[in-house]
Amino acid sequence: MIPFDTLFLFFAASVALALAPGPDNIFVLTQSALHGRLSGFLVTIGLCTGLLVHTAAVSFGIAVIFQTSDLAFNALKAIGASYLLYLAWRAFQAGESNFSEQEDIALSRRKLYLRGILMNVTNPKVAIFFLAFLPQFANPSRGSLALQMLTLGAVFMLAALIVFGAIAWAAGFIGNWLKRTRSAQIVINRFAGTVFVGLALRLALSK
After folding, report:
1. Phi, psi for 101 (deg, rounded to 5)
2. Rounded Cα distance, 86 and 115, in Å
3. Residue 199 lies in a domain
4. 51 falls in which pLDDT band (50, 70, 90)?
5. Are 199 and 27 a contacting pair, CB within 8 Å?
6. What total of structural domains would you count in the chain?
7. For residues 144 and 48, which has the higher predicted lDDT (pLDDT)?
8. Which domain holds residue 128?
9. 12 within some domain
10. Please, what is the angle between helix 102-121 and helix 37-59, to 10°?
C-alpha cells in the first residue's frame, strides 16, 4: 500500500499540475462557456476517462513506446493536432446556438464527452508525462508496481475532476451571459476556434 503522506503529496502535486494553464483546462473553459456548465462537466468526465487509458498504458508498460518510438509519437501527435484543427473549423463555422432544441443539446453533450476522451487520448505528451511522473511516487518494496500506478492514476483523475469541474462551474457564468446575448456567441466561437488552432500548433510542434 502507498503511505497516506505520499498519496497526499501526490494529490497536491496533481492539483497544482491541473491548475497550470494547458490544453485540457482551456478546453473545459471554452466548452463550458459555449455550451453551459453541464457540457463543461461532461468534457471534464471525458478528459478523466481518457486518463484511464494513459494510466493503464503506464501501468502495463505500453507508454514507453511513445517515449522510444518517434513514429508512434508523431502519428498520435498528428491525429491529435488534426482533431483540434477540425474543432477549430467547426467553431469558426458556427453561428448563434439555439438553446431551445433539446435534441441537439443532447447530441452535443455526447459529442462533448467524446471530444474530451479523444483530445486526452491523442495527446502523447500526457502519456509521457504519466510515464515520468507516476513512477516517482511508486516503490517496488510496497508490492505490485502496476497496482500502485493504477492507484496513483485514480488519485490524479480525482484531482483533475475537482479542478476541471471547478473551472467548468465558473465558466458557466459566461454561458448564462451568452444565452442573453446571442451575438456574443459568434465572438466566443471565433475565440474558441483560435484557441483550438493554437493548441493544435502547440501539439504539432511538441517534441
Report:
1. -90, 100
2. 11
3. yes
4. very high
5. yes
6. 1
7. 48
8. 24-204
9. no
10. 30
